[in-house]
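Sequence design from tokenized structure. All designs in this work follow the same two-part layout: the structure record, then the generated sequence. An example of the structure record is given first.
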């Protein structure tokens, strides 16, 4: 089994070294959407293949997937680190031919007790609704990923949309290990407020509100 780790970036100089390094000796493709900091140089210096694409996380990941040489793809956010033993966990999951994709649990890199609540909500979200988000390092067999249509060009929820289509082709599993993601987006938007806003966006998405409108609501643009 060969794995390609794909990391979409835009001005991620502060975090990219940790995410690339967490991939170990796997092929790493950094799909950059026009960074103006040293993201590309840092990633390249650590051995990652860096490609420039148009901006848009789903589009960036999709373009990188087309150049990947691995038969399994892992989509890793730039502020997130894969856990130790991640390769073996994926390998064990894919021994089952019916399993075509999956993701890891989520751990937030902060000791603040509120984040333990967020982590519990993520677990509950999976058990109750089967939902997996991109910050959990989604992985998929490459052929099944393309068969499902890859990531659509959506401004928001491209990860949930893709996993939904993958479920139509086979089993999607949540692994025991957990990625570690930065708390920055919760801290920037307010821990409670950001969590509530995420819940609102999910509820609206499940009610059929278009991703374009969700983007406007999430980022406060009219």
């Amino acid at each position: 089994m060969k794995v390609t780790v794909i990391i979409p970036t835009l001005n991620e100089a502060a975090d990219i070294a940790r995410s690339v390094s967490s991939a170990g000796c796997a092929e790493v493709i950094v799909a950059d959407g026009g960074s103006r900091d040293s993201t590309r140089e840092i990633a390249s210096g650590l051995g990652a293949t860096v490609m420039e694409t148009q901006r848009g996380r789903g589009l960036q990941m999709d373009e990188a997937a087309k150049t990947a040489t691995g038969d399994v793809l892992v989509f890793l956010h730039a502020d997130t680190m894969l856990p130790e033993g991640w390769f073996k966990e994926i390998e064990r999951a894919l021994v089952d031919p019916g399993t075509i994709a999956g993701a890891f649990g989520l751990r937030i890199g902060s000791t603040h007790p509120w984040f333990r609540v967020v982590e519990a909500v993520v677990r509950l979200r999976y058990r109750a609704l089967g939902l997996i988000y991109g910050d959990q390092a989604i992985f998929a067999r490459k052929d099944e990923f393309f068969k499902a249509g890859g990531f659509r060009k959506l401004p928001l929820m491209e990860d949930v949309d893709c996993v939904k289509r993958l479920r139509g082709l086979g089993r999607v599993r949540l692994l025991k290990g957990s990625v570690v993601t930065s708390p920055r987006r919760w801290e920037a938007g307010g821990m409670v407020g950001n969590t509530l806003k995420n819940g609102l966006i999910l509820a609206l998405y499940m009610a059929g509100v278009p991703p374009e409108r969700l983007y406007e609501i999430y980022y406060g643009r009219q």
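The radius of gyration is 16 Å. We note this feature because it recurs in several other targets discussed in the main text.
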